[in-house]
């Protein structure tokens, strides 16, 4: 055999005396990581012996924060890197909890980290199943061409993009207190995508408007957001007191909406050539979706069941409808064919030739799994940082060193970066001595503060997945100063209108 040349042996060789090979590079990186981990674990072990409870000032805590920051940096650069947002946070979640578990093991505690992780997994499982049902219903409505028909109706009425901008925003604001901000945002975005499919700029502005409106609408109702539900269940704010936030929430929505409306495209939407005829079961799907939301709300309100139980029960409603549509498929197609032939509707006849029975697992398979996995990473990352002690430490600094008003305003700003659920949970866990006005203030800020970034609320994250390529972190970030103006205006309105509660 011929001898292999030195250049073939060392493909990474440079024109210098020092040779860098892949093995040497990876070995050095691995040794560096191992050294840091060893240093962190040894510090934790010594800290445990001295009775320290927090890991916030030890290498493991610092490493966890760095991992989280790097992961979120990749999320923020998703539009530039074309790297799906779930990938960095999934990796970060695993690394953080391996650090946490290793630190706990070194200190002789094998139970607390496991219990904390299970608690976070329970929170995520409820969120996962809730979102899965909501997205399945929306995909089923789309498959039944409900949104195509709605788009055709809106366009046929001659609504401009500006009118549609306000219609979808107002609907999101008034529906979210009854349903919830996430489900409302998903529903309105589906309509928006169909109505404005020929104008990417309109879709981006409309999605931002929907996120703001849905979050603002959810802030004055116990059922509108998870944070308001937590405050209500804790008993610090009575049910009727939430409605004192209606006007401040409306200001939060209207101020940025008015300013953004000047940037809405002036040209009218493209007219539909023919009216769209919905598939069988479209209206019944809407009715079952409303029944599902009602089931979830009633079960949670009166029986104190998690909302996800009602949502999963509602998934059964859709499954039974799917079973009926499958069993009556041939009879239904024959009836529609007769109608289409009598009315000479060639478009409907072409659709009937390609018709297939409804299968619920098709809309379920089209669920935005990248978004659901992103939520997994976020919940576990934040849960890990909470176990380390960072959330409690931040809350302690806010309510010990600052006044309540400044702290509650800062809570809203933090909720735009870190999910508002753990932030509100940390505030409720501290039980600061505050007036009803301050509790309503933190409820308002935690609810609407997440609108300042697309990753700051569940509605924003979900819409980034649903309107992929149109609504992104950067498109939202361009309007953050305007949204912050609405945030400040809503706080000022609350402190003026409800001054007697402070």
UniProtKB/TrEMBL annotation:
- Quick check: keyword Phosphoprotein in the entry? no
Localization in the cell: Membrane
Main localisation: membrane
Q: What membrane topology does this protein have?
A: Multi-pass membrane protein
Q: Which domain of life is it from?
A: Bacteria
Parts of the chain that traverse the membrane: 57-77, 89-106, 121-140, 152-172, 202-223, 243-264, 308-325, 373-392, 404-427, 439-465, 477-497
List each copy of the Citrate transporter-like domain by range. 73-447
Record carries keyword tRNA processing:
no
Task: Cite the entry's keywords alphabetically.
Answer: Antiport, Ion transport, Membrane, Sodium, Sodium transport, Transmembrane, Transmembrane helix, Transport
Similarity field: Belongs to the NhaD Na(+)/H(+) (TC 2.A.62) antiporter family.
> What protein am I looking at?
Sodium:proton antiporter NhaD
Q: Gene encoding this polypeptide?
A: nhaD
């Amino acid at each position: 055999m011929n001898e292999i040349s030195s250049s073939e042996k060392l493909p990474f060789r440079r024109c210098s005396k020092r040779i860098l090979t892949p093995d040497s590079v990876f070995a050095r990186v691995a040794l560096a990581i191992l050294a840091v981990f060893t240093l962190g674990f040894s510090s934790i072990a010594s800290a445990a012996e001295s009775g320290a409870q927090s890991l916030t000032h030890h290498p493991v805590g610092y490493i966890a924060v760095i991992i989280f920051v790097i992961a979120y940096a990749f999320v923020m650069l998703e539009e530039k890197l074309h790297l799906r947002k779930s990938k960095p946070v999934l990796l970060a979640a695993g690394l953080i909890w391996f650090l946490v578990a290793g630190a706990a093991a070194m200190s002789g505690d094998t139970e607390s980290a496991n219990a904390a992780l299970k608690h976070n997994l329970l929170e995520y499982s409820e969120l996962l199943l809730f979102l899965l049902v909501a997205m399945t219903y929306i995909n089923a409505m789309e498959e039944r061409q409900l949104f195509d028909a709605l788009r055709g109706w809106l366009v046929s009425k001659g609504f401009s993009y500006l009118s549609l901008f306000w219609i979808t925003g107002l609907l999101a604001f008034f529906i979210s207190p009854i349903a919830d901000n996430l489900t409302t945002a998903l529903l309105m975005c589906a309509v928006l995508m169909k109505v404005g499919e020929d104008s990417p700029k309109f879709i981006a502005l409309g999605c931002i408007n929907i996120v703001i409106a849905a979050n603002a609408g959810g802030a004055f109702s116990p059922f509108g957001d998870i944070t308001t539900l937590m405050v209500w269940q804790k008993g610090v704010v009575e049910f009727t007191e939430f409605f004192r936030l209606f006007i401040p929430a409306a200001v939060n929505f209207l101020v940025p909406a008015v300013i953004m409306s000047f940037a809405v495209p002036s040209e009218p939407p493209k007219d539909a050539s023919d009216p769209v005829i919905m598939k069988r079961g479209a209206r019944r799907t809407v009715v079952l979706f409303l029944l599902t939301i009602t089931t979830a709300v009633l079960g949670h309100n009166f029986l104190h069941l998690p909302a996800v139980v009602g949502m999963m029960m509602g998934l059964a409603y859709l499954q039974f409808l799917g079973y009926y549509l499958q069993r009556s498929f041939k009879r239904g197609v024959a009836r529609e064919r007769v109608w289409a032939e009598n009315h000479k509707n060639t478009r409907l006849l072409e659709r009937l030739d390609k018709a297939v029975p409804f299968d619920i697992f098709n809309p379920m398979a089209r669920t935005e799994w990248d978004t659901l996995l992103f939520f997994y990473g976020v919940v576990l990352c934040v849960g890990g940082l909470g176990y380390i002690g960072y959330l409690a430490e931040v809350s302690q600094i806010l309510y010990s060193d600052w006044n309540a008003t400044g702290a509650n305003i800062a809570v809203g700003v933090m909720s735009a970066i870190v999910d508002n659920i753990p932030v509100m949970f940390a505030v409720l866990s501290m039980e600061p001595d505050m007036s009803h006005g301050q509790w309503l203030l933190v409820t308002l800020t935690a609810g609407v503060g997440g609108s300042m970034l697309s990753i700051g609320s569940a509605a924003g994250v979900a819409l980034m997945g649903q309107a992929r390529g149109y609504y992104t972190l950067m498109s939202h970030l361009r309007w953050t100063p305007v949204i912050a103006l609405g945030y400040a205006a809503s706080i000022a309105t609350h402190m003026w209108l409800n001054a007697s509660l402070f």
